[in-house]
């Protein structure tokens, strides 16, 4: 019987190492200051593209009969009629119990490039797209913070949202009604990531719904830091400034062959579609890019981030109605604790373990070999002694 380390066993050990099995370690760490997430306020509900673009738009555009000469509104007109201006959004940063106002008004409806910058953060406006049974657009105000916050309810970021901004809902004959959108959906994402214009709201975004009819609302922020490994099958990047959604958006925009775009693709630097037939062709190509191999090709090209932060919001409402003639709500964002959940992916079988198993198997093989040599020597000596005894002639 022979013992040894076969080639198949070596291949199995190496393949196990290359497959990179991992497990996740959960810990809690405490930090002195925490960075705020990117906070996006969107009018809720989102408004139908059908209403804004004056015509019926079904999910299957091949069944739609449109007049190719229908003229669509300009991007500035859409912005104006969606009341995307943030003229009644005021933000405050609390230090102790004294509030310092650092942003008020100044955002207007002239375009998506308007940004109000402060030493604590930037405000910008955008239009986001959601996809379901119908395409819908939402007017959003985005706050990208630059500051960190200590712990405490009175050490947070306070933002006042108005419940009186009016949205004009278009019909085919351009007549509209004015309704106050008293509800906002507030999304929270890592500061590096953003709401992508091409694909809409990222799947990692957490959200709460804020009703501007209530005077005071508190939102607790519970952060979790995700650390993943870069594996052969799923590589990732450690670049802290890298944005996966931005990479995906750039990749998809490069694949877009249409000469014009919808009102939410401001980053494309292409003109807005002005004719119904142009818009129909654009939507068909847009759907193909999102739902076919082009998106998967971009997914392969765009690495994920090895480290990210997710925020779990908890909304607390005092249920006190707003007594002002122009309803608004003060929203207080704060960290109730400095504890951060850390989910860290680790190798469950690394190169040291592979070498250990190979060495162990090799050691067992060598052990059996030494034992075999001892037995062989014992047998050989026994044979030599036996042969010597046979050569001795018997004495008479």
Automatic annotation (TrEMBL):
Subcellular location as annotated: Membrane
Classification via InterPro entries: ENaC (IPR001873)
Gene3D superfamilies: YojJ-like
GO molecular function: ligand-gated sodium channel activity
UniProt cross-references to Pfam families, sorted A to Z: ASC (PF00858)
Main location (coarse class): membrane
Family membership noted in the UniProt record: Belongs to the amiloride-sensitive sodium channel (TC 1.A.6) family.
Protein name, entry field: Uncharacterized protein
Lineage start: Eukaryota, Metazoa, Ecdysozoa, Arthropoda, Crustacea
